[in-house]
């Protein structure tokens, strides 16, 4: 059990040595935190965890072993996330032994995707296993949301299980007309009829997902791949997945395997949204049954005029165009409002969504 003075020592570091001696585990926790946060050059100005004089001899492998032994799961995930995202400890994702000991989580997934170009074949194989484990968890979670969104349309089949939203007025009147009461001008309902809620019977639709693969959009890239995978197998829906920066890469053939999709993503580069949208427009078979989701921060490196013109033509033809500044679990965007506003004025729906929100939007449109 951690005492009060040990908790303060873990917060303040060696600056709190005068609070009293630490237990063996407390000292080990302090050393593990110092190994990581001792890299923060600004912490001395804040008076938090001021560095000691001794250089740490811990390796990354040792440190991982220690934190898994000394801290609860939530703390371990935060420490590993800080190691990869804030302090750029490359061997967290370029060393086989380190990868095998790390706990798969979304922060580690993002670090792998950012660093995979640095990996040799052996490390890449270990990294792929981590990507697969994290992606499988995301897919399983989203599948539930997709099933919820797409389950339960009203079909013209009778059911004895009544719910007001499923009441079939036309059939009920037709089947009970023999009970018409002229004096009261009413039909005495002997038996009401209801629609059965079953899997949606969908006419063919297209969903074209265009996702910006610049580094700032990494969360959206991950969730776009997972979302496309979950929607890919739905009957009556043809899903395309296209990644873009200054060029366009059609990943539709890999849509059923989001791991392979993500391993092929090349983060960085310029941003030609107009070029990507033009490519997406060329894929449309029937504008009246097409949903085009452009997932980007709207910082256009190409022609804004070309972009707005293409979006305007798609909307005029009847396509549903979504401009999403974020597609992730937080849906908290940072985007160019001027470009986004220009697209909204020509008919695009602008906003941010969770993956489940996009599934609900698609289900609503194709279920009409």
Automatic annotation (TrEMBL):
Pfam families: VWA_CoxE (PF05762). InterPro entries: LolB, Uncharacterised_CoxE, vWFA_dom_sf. Coiled coil: none annotated. SUPFAM superfamilies: vWA-like. PANTHER family: OUTER MEMBRANE LOLAB LIPOPROTEIN INSERTION APPARATUS, OUTER-MEMBRANE LIPOPROTEIN LOLB. This is VWA domain-containing protein. It comes from Salininema proteolyticum.
